[in-house]
Amino acid sequence: MSYPYQIKSLEEYRKIYNQSIEHPTKFWSEIGEHFKWHKQWDEVLHWNFKEPKVEWFKGARLNITENCLDRWVETQPDIPAIIWEPNDPTKSSITLTYKELHFKVCQFANVLKNNGAKKGDRICIYMPMVPELVIAVLACARIGAIHSVVFGGFSAQSISDRIQDAQCSMVITADGAFRGNKTIPLKSIIDEALLTCPSIEKVLVLTHTGVPVSMINERDLWWEDEIKKIESQENWYCPAESMDAEDMLFILYTSGSTGKPKGVVHTCAGYMVWANYTFVNVFQYKKGQVHFCTADIGWITGHSYIIYGPLSAGATTLMFEGIPTWPDAGRFWEIVEKHSVNILYTAPTAIRSLMSFGIEPIMGKNLSSIDVLGTVGEPINEEAWHWYNENIGNKKCPIVDTWWQTETGGVLISNLAGITESKPGFATLPLPGIQPVLVDESGKEIKGNEVSGNLCIKYPWPGILRTTYGDHERCRINYFSAYPDLYFTGDGCLRDENGNYRITGRVDDVLNISGHRIGTAELENAINMHTGVVESAIVGYPHDIKGQGIYAYVIFNGMHTDEEHTKQDICQTVAKIIGAIAKPDKIQFVTGLPKTRSGKIMRRILRKIAEGDINNLGDTSTLLDPLIVEEIKSNRQ
Ligand code: PRX
Predict the structure, then answer these.
(1) Residue 107 to residues 97, 132, 238, 278: CA-CA distances in angstroms?
(2) Residues 323, 329, 330, CA angle at the centre, nearest 5°?
(3) Is residue 259 classed as helix, strand or coil in its secondary structure?
C-alpha cells in the first residue's frame, strides 16, 4: 500500500514540484490534512528571513506521538514498529509492535511525570542504540518536554556543555553501551559531566551492559524500578500533551565555524510534516516494508529516519546497536538477510569501509529483499556508488543520494527512489517546496545550468530550523545574514546541464569526518587545552574511508623527547574535550604557522600542504614569514 501524497512518476514530480512553488500554502495545507491535529491551523505559513521568523501551521495544536503511535494503534496495532538488532549477533533481536511501543512510551512518559518532568523542560538523553532510546525520545514528546539527544561517543565535557547550554533538568542514560567488542561506561561519563551541571535534578538509568555504576542518593534512579511503580498502579496510559505547532520538539547540537556547538531547534508541526513527507517520498516507502537506517539516533539522520519519519508513516523501522565491522564485515548483510530489509540507508564512509574488505563478507548472504538503497552525510565518490549499486543492489535497486543537514530537519535535495533519475555523485533534484539558489561570493544569484556556487535556499520549508537555542542572533548570523532573504547552507554546489545538483562540500571552516560535522575552531580549542600546545591550526584532507581526515598543525612548547607519545597525549586531550570521533588523524609539529601581516592564519596554504598539493600553493605574497611555509612543506606528514 502506498500513501496518497506519494509521488508516482517523473511527470507527477514535475507537476507537484511546480504546484509546491507556485502555491506553497495550498500545497502544504493539503499535505497537512494527512495528520492528526487537536486543532486546525489558522495560517499555513508566516515568515521572514530577516529576523528570522518562520511559523508553519500557525495556531494548530497537536502531539507528534499521536501521529507516530496512537493513530497506528487504531489501524495496525500488531504491525512491528521497531525491530531492534543487538550489537552481539548471538543475542536475540526484539520486535515491538505499534501497540507495544505505544504502551511503553505511555508508561515511561508517566515515569518522567512522576519524577517532576513537565512541558517545556529540557531533558538530555545519552543512551545506547536500544529500543528504550526511542521510548525515551517519544516519552519526552508525549509530555511536551524538549529532548536533547547527545551522541554516545561524546565526552563528559561535551555533554556538560550541552546540558548547561539548554539548562536541562533531567538526564536519561544507561549503565553502559556495547559497541563492537568494546563497552562504553555511559553512566560514569554522565557522572563526570554532572559535576558541572547544577541544573540536573534527576538521572534515570537503564540497565543494559550490567557494568557496576555509582548511584547517587535522591538524584539517580533505575529505569526498571520507576517502571515498576507505574505497572503496580495499572495506570500506564498517558494522555498526549496538546502542543502548539511552533512549540519546541527538540534541540540537537551541531558544530559550526565558531568554537561552540549550537543547539539547533526544531518545532512540533513543521518538523513532523517534513520528516514524514520526505520519508514517504524519497524512499518510496510501501506499507509492510522494513526500513533500516544505520545512523545513530544521536544525529539528525537517526531522529528523522529511524524515529519520526518512519513512525509517523506507520512504517517498520529497524535499529541496530552495533557497528558494521564487528564481529566481521558481513554484519550489515547478515541483518539484511535476517530481517528481510527492504530499504537500506547508510553513509558513504560505511560503504567505503566495507568495500575495503572485498566481496567475501557479502558472499552467501541473501540480499534479494532490498528494494531501495540510500546514502547520506557526505558526497559519495563514484567508486563507492558503483560498488554499492553492483554488490548490494545487484544493479536493480535505485540509490537515493540524500542531501540535507541538521538544520533542514529532513532531506532537501535527492532523487526519489525509482521515480526520478539517479546520477552517481549527484543528489539530483530538489524536493517539492525546495528552491535551491546558487550564489557567488558577492551574493549574486548564478542562474542557468552548468554553473557552481554557494548553495542557498530561497523560501522556507516546514522542516527548517527555527532558532539556535538561547541565542537567536547566532541563528540569524550563521544562516540568514550572509545573503539577504536566503538560507545559507555552508555548502558548495554545482548544477549540471539538466538542473541536477551535486554537493561539493563545505565552504566554511567545518570538516565532515565520516559524515560527522566538526568545526575546525572547536577542534583547535580542544587541542589548545593540552598544556604543551601554544597554537594549532586544523584543516581537512582527503581520507580514503572517512571522506575527510583531520590534519593538525601544532606549535608545541618545550622539548618532547618522544614525538609519538606527545601526539597520543594530544589525541587523548581531544578525546576528553570533544570525544574520540574528533581525534586528529595526522599531527605535524611546526615552529610557526603561515599568517598574514594582520595575524590571520592562511588555511588555504595549510590545506594545500595537507592535501599534498605542495607545488601549487597560490599567492603567498601576503605572508608575514614565507620561510615557515618551506619548513611545513618539508616536514609534511
Ligand atoms: O556538507 C553537507 C554534508 O553534511 C552536512 C550536514 O551535516 P549534518 O548536519 O551533520 O547532517 C548530516 C546528515 C543529514 C551538509 O552541509 N552532506 C549531507 N548529506 C550529503 C552531504 N554532502 C554531500 N552529499 C550528501 N548527500
Answers:
(1) 15, 12, 7, 30
(2) 100
(3) coil
For the cut 70, the answer to whether the pLDDT of residue 291 exceeds it is yes
- Chain-centroid distance of CA 12 in Å reads 30
CA dist., res. 40 & res. 61, Å (int): 7
Note whether 346 and 375 are within 8 A (CB).
yes
How far apart are the CA of 378 and the centre of ligand 1, in A? 5
Write down all domains in the chain, each with its CATH number in brackets.
514-634 (3.30.300.30)
Contact criterion met (CB below 8 Å) for 578 and 519: no
Residue with cell 568545526: 519
Ligand 1 atom showing the smallest separation from residue 411 Cα: 14
Kindly report, residue by residue over 432-464, the tens digit of the pLDDT: 999 999 999 899 999 999 999 999 999 999 999
Which strands, in side-by-side order, build the sheet including 399-402? 94-97, 80-85, 316-320, 290-293, 343-346, 372-376, 399-402
Q: Could you please report the per-residue DSSP string of 474-487?
A: HHIIIIISSSTTSE
What is the CA(515)–ligand 1 centre distance, in A? 7
Residue 56: name the closest of 308, 275, 314, 280 by CA. Answer: 275
Q: Where are the beta strands (DSSP E) in 117-230?
A: 122-126, 146-149, 170-174, 177-179, 182-184, 202-206, 220-222
**Half-sphere exposure of residue 362: CA atoms within 13 angstroms, side-chain side:** 16
- Residue pLDDT, tens place only, 551-595: 999 999 876 668 899 999 999 999 999 999 999 999 999 999 999
Closest-CA residue, ligand 1 atom 14, reads 405
Cis peptide before 52 (omega within 30 of 0): yes
Distance CA 144, CA 240 (A): 8
Give 301 Cα–ligand 1 centroid separation in angstroms. 10
DSSP state of 430: B
Ligand 1, pocket-test mutation among 491, 506, 522, most atoms within 8 A of CB? 491
Where do we find the cell 589525541?
Answer: 571
DSSP secondary structure letters along 33-49: TTS--SB--SEEEEEET
C-alpha 347 to ligand 1 mean position (Å): 10
Q: Which residue has the higher pLDDT, 615 or 303?
A: 303
- Short-list 212, 279, 271, 230, CA closest to 247: 271
Ligand 1 proximal residues by C-beta, below 6 Å: 254, 300-301, 376-379, 401-406, 427, 489-491, 503, 506, 512, 517
Q: Residue 388 carries which DSSP code? A: I
| Cα of 613 from ligand 1 centre, angstroms | 26
Helical pair 563-577 and 156-166, crossing angle rounded to 10 deg: 30
